[in-house]
Amino acid sequence: MKKAIRTLCLVAIAIFAIPQQADAQFFKKLKKAAENVVKEAITGEKTTESTGTTAQSSTSAVNFVVGASGVSVGNPAAKHFDVEFVEAVGNAANNTVTITLKATSKDLNYSNVHIGDNTVTGYDADGNEYKSNDYAEAKNMPAGLPVKFEISSLSKVPATVTMLPVVYVGYYLSGDVRSLGGNITTGIQLKNVPVTWQ
User: Fold this and answer.
1) Which residue has the higher pLDDT, 185 or 24?
2) Are the beta carbons of 161 and 135 closer than 8 angstroms?
3) What's the pLDDT at 181?
4) DSSP summary character for residue 59
5) Of all helices (H) and strands (E), which one includes residue 130?
6) Share of the chain above pLDDT 70, in %
7) What span, in angstroms and rounded, lies between the C-alpha atoms of 40 and 47?
8) Closest to 80 (Cα-Cα) out of 63, 61, 103, 47
9) pLDDT, greater one: 23 or 55
């Protein structure tokens, strides 16, 4: 994006430095280039000049890793810590689902870590939304050592739900490594979570 803005500025300077001539084609191309720069700055889309197609910026995408359980885990803070799905257990007596994750810090020791602390949202195949309503235990996370986190339970989940296609889990390791409260897209994403009922 910096390169595009720099190019746009150089073009604008060149316009005023050269003798002024009315060149309609030049101004049409300049307008189109400016629109693409604005679109890239606002939405993260880049337009290729030769095809005119748009492609989403790779920096906003989350890479998913499929574990042995078949659950795909997308972690936007993967450079700081790894996350692995352990299990999702449903309690038929009170209609809750509790998910357990395993997290491993890559380089630093973290204390008072919150993963899934009252910031869990899950969806079933019919589009019903389930949220957590309690708090999960804070834990320390030593570098290189996996730590299990039992995240806060999803409530009001009927025992007929055996799969959650997507679950969003908030996290807080430090002021710099955290999801944004209320914004599910910044959290850890779990796809195709099987629920075992007891």
Assistant:
1) 185
2) no
3) 80
4) G
5) strand 129-131
6) 71
7) 8
8) 103
9) 23
Q: Are 178 and 171 in contact (CB under 8 A)?
A: yes
Please give the Cα distance from 9 to 25 (Å, whole number): 19
Residue 19: its pLDDT value, please? 57
What does pTM read for this prediction? 0.68
Tokens of 153: 């339970």
Q: Considering only CA atoms, which of 164, 173, 163, 157 is closest in space to residue 104? A: 173
Query: What's the rounded Cα separation, in Å, for the pair 58 and 41?
Result: 14
Q: Which residues pair with 172 in a beta bridge?
A: 114, 178
Q: What whole-number distance in Å separates Cα of residue 69 and Cα of residue 43? A: 35
Torsion over CA: 111, 187, 85, 196 (sign): positive
Residue 28, SS3 per DSSP: helix
d(CA 79, CA 144): 13
Identify the residue whose tokens are 């957590």.
132
